[in-house]
């Protein structure tokens, strides 16, 4: 009898186990994905994201009463995180799962840029190597060696501004390029039309076209990449091949220049020369080339965007400008400008820097991440391979975090952190639908919230993709801000009627659209 029982159990138990696993996996698959719009049959929501997608996402989050939303763009599942809580929980705490990048077949494969710092998979060991090299090359200690360079370039910038203040954006581009070219390659930028800057800008332009979201069908239906390039509808393949050759030769130019200088014993110490030195720590050449290439690509447009916003906002907010100027004069006395080591002792200047980053985020949605396995967040399933976007703009304009989010108020960062008990009410969610004046608020449950958290913890991205150039960006921006405030008065032209509306460009890096301002030398 006992034998029969153990036989039955022996046969049934494995079957029961299989049945249980099957039912469990089916039920776990039944957990809903986050809510969101259905979109069109073939293209999904692609056509609804023409301008300022971060605002559209925030509106959808309100509409669906959920900070985490999802939808399809063509056949790609996209999940958008619209509040600080989901971003912290998923992108930072579960960084190991959420730090991959979605594949752009056009840019990564056809144009051959998949190995760049920005695009490489987080699962590829080279990603860790790139980041280690950049972190080390831009560490606090390494940056101290660049203080003289930064100081000289800031002085040249002030000189150029004095001569042609109307061309401030051009001067900013030149200055940031000069700093990063010297750090990456030991290369000194010439005054105008520098060939290396033109090459780098050309690469950036091509990259922008190749990465344009929704433009290339191959990004969503990779099977079409097998269409031969002579085929009438394969224009994308011919374009990809052309760009691949261009991008390859463009990225080789500065690298080969350094090698030639080293061979002739003419090289200036730089990120690249240090890593190519034939010693025990030398890195494979290809790794060094990609890592150095990431420095220019990461630093140029972003830093210029932050500084352009600063200059334009000073024209709109003269009281803020005066307060920052008083602080500098009180600290330095008249005639002296702040040195790099003074910068972090100027509390209002640092608060102004944070408010510029919050009010006009350089990167409204960071760069897209990808989740590498199925995951569950609160009651939602986040399917493997979903593209995951952090809506940094929505977080930095959330009135529950930053009261009066559409006001430009550096003083919000002068106080010690305040904790508030945030109690959302159903009615508020609808009312606050991210209009420019009301702001956006969406929290799924009552929670303690630190008011006015440091925006740098959002502006520079998340998890294992957090910007490795944050420290260099901060010193460069604070230094140029302090010099501009010391030397110039920025204002709106008189008699032009009402103040201009602040509008932003759409794109990976967002810029305030320029308007007329007057820049005069201070006495
Ligand atoms: C105000 C200036 C800057 C801002 C706002 C900024 C912001 C960002 C953001 C949002 C990301 C994407 C993070 C993510 O995907 O979660 C990023 C990535 C990156 N940034 Fe910056 N950045 C700035 C300056 C710089 C500078 C000066 C450098 C280098 C010298 C740099 C190098 C990079 C690199 C290499 C990456 C790619 C990291 C990766 O994919 O692993 N950035 N940055």
TrEMBL record:
Cofactor annotation: heme
Segments crossing the lipid bilayer: 6-24
A single MF term (Gene Ontology): iron ion binding
Pfam families: p450
InterPro entries for the chain: Cyt_P450, Cyt_P450_CS, Cyt_P450_E_grp-I, Cyt_P450_sf, Cytochrome_P450_fung
Keywords of the record: Heme, Iron, Membrane, Metal-binding, Monooxygenase, Oxidoreductase, Transmembrane, Transmembrane helix
Binding site for heme: 467
Pathway in which the depicted protein is active: Secondary metabolite biosynthesis
UniProt-listed PANTHER family: P450, PUTATIVE (EUROFUNG)-RELATED (PTHR46300:SF7), P450, PUTATIVE (EUROFUNG)-RELATED-RELATED (PTHR46300)
Family per similarity comment: Belongs to the cytochrome P450 family.
Protein name per UniProt: Cytochrome P450
